Amino acid sequence: MEQTLSRRTVLKAAALAAGALVLPRGSGPARAAAPAGRVLIPGYNARSATVDGRAVLHDPATVMALRADQDGPATLITSVSLDSGAVRRAAFPLRGHAIAIAPASGVGVFVGMNAPRTVAFDATTLDLIAMAQPARPGWVFGGHALALPDGSVLVAERAPPGDPLPGLLSVRDPLTLRVLDTLPAHGIGPHDLRLTPRGHVAVANYGSAAPPPDRVVVPRVVAPAVTIVDLGSGRLVQRYDLPPALGEVRHLVPTEDAVFAIMARVVAADAFEQDPTADPGIAYLDAPPLRLAGGSTQPMPLAGGLAARQGISIVHDPRAGQVLATFPSIDTLAVFDAADGRCLKVLGIAEHGLVAPCGIALLPDGERYAVAGQLAGLRLMQRGSHRALPGARYDLPLFRHSHIVAA
Questions:
Q1: Cβ(90)–Cβ(40) under 8 Å?
Q2: Buried residues in 3-41 as b, exposed as e (16+ CB within 10 A)
Q3: How many Å apart are CA 158 and CA 277, to the nearest integer?
């Protein structure tokens, strides 16, 4: 049984059938739902993170879900108030990747990436609520979760590292992370999960064997695919099988009539120029996003002949009829026409004081979106025009991330 130390109390945890660990009764969220006006940002480099010369893990203001001297993986979450600029940070004992927020309960689910732990936390206070293991022994989490309309969350899970078997999607209670049901992912290495307009789930399946968590290797891509899965039955509704030469399917976003997919072609770093935004030992080649519709696959090259290296986050703005995607290796945010996939413009985000844009999130007000630099900085932009909004600049360290979420 695992144990961890919260800021105020030692967890009195019991292992559930699903491998979840839960705080004592009454330790749930402070509110029924997290208030609007905040952005939550993971931070991979928790062990080396400092602010004003002070180690974040030793800062009394950090909400600690692990001991500062505890060995093993650790990931930060930084919460930024868009009204006041106030910052709250928390450290969690996992190799986390992306956050999903269940609105009805006000719970955030922070999912492990190729790792055997996922946590649930109060999206307002950042206090730890529960921890869980994968639904099957020896499996690992796939990095993303999805809040479902019934209040539960769907979590991507992968076969044991090195084993290219189809993954699964676990349906969980966000407060306990207890497994309620499992569905087939119908693909190898499920990662990003999004609801389609018809109420199905679209799954980005890497199509490669997951490396061990302590190794960075060039993946062996065998069967990248986008699958559309019925949430009620687990039935495969549609499948797009993609050539392995296109790389892994990393992230996606569905629209009314298509799915837009982010691809990644990974090579050894010594075979390409050094990329400071990539993990040590690897680099990224040009891999244009794809528009998948009606059984066809349409590449979407970037405007100006830019190489689409290391696409990360992707969102659909239905009001503007646009799809936005970040490419940190080339310091670019790209804007695509949601109707036909044409690249309408590329934004050199450095002019707004950001380097290597990664996370992007539409804000609940329907007028703005947030974009964050990989290591520092958060900016608010106007949807549609992509004009940087005056006074909406937050200069703070972020400790390396891939995705952000608005709460």
A1: no
A2: ebbbeeeebebeebebbbbbbeeebbbeeebbeeebbbb
A3: 25
pLDDT on residue 25 = 28
Which of 21, 24, 33 lies closest to 177, judged by CA? 21
- How far is Cα 377 from Cα 43, in angstroms, rounded to an integer? 13
The predicted-structure confidence for 226-265, as pLDDT tens digits, reads as follows 999 999 999 999 999 999 999 999 999 999 999 999 999 9
User: Is the pLDDT higher at 343 or at 25?
Assistant: 343
Top-confidence residue, 377 or 1: 377
Which CATH number fits the domain that encloses residue 105?
Answer: 2.120.10
Contact 166, 225 (CB under 8 A): no
Contact 405, 378 (CB under 8 A): no
Residue 329 lies in a domain: no
Which stretches does DSSP call E strand in 33-158? 38-43, 50-51, 54-55, 63-64, 75-81, 87-92, 96-102, 107-115, 118-122, 128-132, 140-147, 153-158
Which residues are CB-neighbours of 325 under 8 A, at least 6 positions away? Answer: 260, 262, 289, 311, 312, 313, 314, 315, 333, 334, 336, 360
Q: What whole-number percentage of the chain has pLDDT above 90?
A: 76
**What is the pLDDT, as a whole number, of residue 295?**
87
- By the 8 A CB rule, do 42 and 403 touch? yes
pLDDT at 220: 86
How many structural domains are present in the chain?
A: 1
- 204: in domain: yes
Tell me which residue range forms the domain holding 58: 1-224
Q: Is the pLDDT of residue 310 over 80?
A: yes
Contacts of residue 198, Cβ cutoff 8 Å, sequence gap at least 6: none
Query: Residues for the chain: how many in total?
Result: 407
Residue 256 lies in a domain: no
Count helices and strands in the chain by DSSP H and E runs: 0, 33
CA–CA distance, 331 with 182 (Å, rounded to integer): 39
Tens digit of each residue's pLDDT (9 = 90 or more) over 53-63: 999 998 988 98
Residue 99 domain-assigned?
yes
